[in-house]
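REQUEST ID: PR-0412
SUBMITTED BY: lab tech R.K.
PRIORITY: routine
TASK: structure prediction, single protein chain
INPUT:
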Amino acid sequence: MFYRLQLDDIVKEAEKQKCSLSDLIKERESLETGMTIEEITKTMEEMYQVMWEDYHSGVESDNRSISGLTGGEGWRLMNYVKENANHPGGIYIKAAARAMGVSNTNASMGRIVATPTAGSCGIIPGVLITLAEEYGKNKDDVVDSLIVAAYIGKVIAENASISGAEGGCQAECGSAAAMAAGAGVHMRGGRPKQVAQAAAFALKAVMGLICDPVAGLVESPCIKRNGFGAVQALLAMDMALAGIESIIPPDEVIIAMGEVGRTMPVTLKETSEGGIASTPTGKRIAEYLENAGSNCLQQFLIRNQ
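STATUS: complete
OUTPUT:
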């Protein structure tokens, strides 16, 4: 079977030329789209600016979602970090807080960057903003890492899926974690091969993960899965930088994820007919929202705490 894009191809080319993976991707993207490298970089800078604004709005307030179902998860976890300065979670818990904060912004109808989807929008900014803070990286470093993340996402989209409706949450939060892990390795100065290995680790960690949004909303369990996805991405990054390698090549992992998505029952792919969406509480929440709206849902949530 022929695949238009493979991580292995660009990894081998970058290592052969002994060049930066992000520079090679920009050159290829320029040839393919007709955009200049400066235009490609500027576009990604604009996306990063939106991510930065999302992160701040998400962790600096406990604003609730339009439905009233969720709100303030990122804000609460970040406050917990501040109150427990010596918490051993360190960079992991900060990334999770930021990832959930960006996802909170999405749920409250804020402007976000779909990375690669709205449901997984917090993972990449949560990871990369936290790494930049931790390791003293500048905006250019983050933008170059985002370009690497975008290429990983492009490979996944062409050979598997980034859609929860097509492949379950493994295709959304899983793809985002893979993109973030590879981008994180790039930011940390890892080799191109380690970028691909990190992406494989992150994707394997959630292979088969279903998409089961309560009441059909991108809130529960989506927001918390963004937090977990950020942590998985960081661990995958560290594993790759430690020299650990995936027994299954990264491109084969991507293809396997696509095959799992195609065989997954439709009830587990964004239809809200399975998983936690089909629990008694999940069904009652959906009924409250359909018949009574967010105000009555607030009373229901208070009574069931």
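NOTES: The radius of gyration is 19 Å.
REVIEWED BY: pending
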